[in-house]
Amino acid sequence: MTWNLRQWARAIKRDIVALYGASRDPRVPWHAKAMALVVTGYALSPIDLIPDFIPVLGYLDDIILLPLGIYLVVKLIPPKLMAEHRAHADAGARLPSNRKAAVVVVTVWIVSLGATLWVLLPLFLP
């Protein structure tokens, strides 16, 4: 089977929707649910690890980190359950759009940045 870029992008989008569904399924192990939420949150987050405006590097996290995260989470979910969630995503399931969720994601990023600065600044300041 030959894959082009468009098919690859559709598969990534489908898997994000499938992982979101899996994160809410009681049959999925808790550690897989937690990782699925992290990967889904990262995929939907308006803030990237490396900002997209940085030439070349800005898109590397989207091209490498996201598929790697999806791959790792898919390996944690039993294959039959993952196939079920992929079929549900193919059938038209969508991610919910929720402003509250967006506020939570942005808040988590801001708190993480603040905590990182709080820990690292004393190391660089005299």
From TrEMBL:
Subcellular location: Endomembrane system
InterPro entries per UniProt: DUF1232 (IPR010652)
Domain DUF1232: 32-68
Keyword Transmembrane: yes
Membrane topology: Multi-pass membrane protein
The organism's place on the tree of life at top rank: Bacteria
Spans traversing the lipid bilayer: 101-125
GO cellular component: endomembrane system
Name of the protein this chain belongs to: DUF1232 domain-containing protein
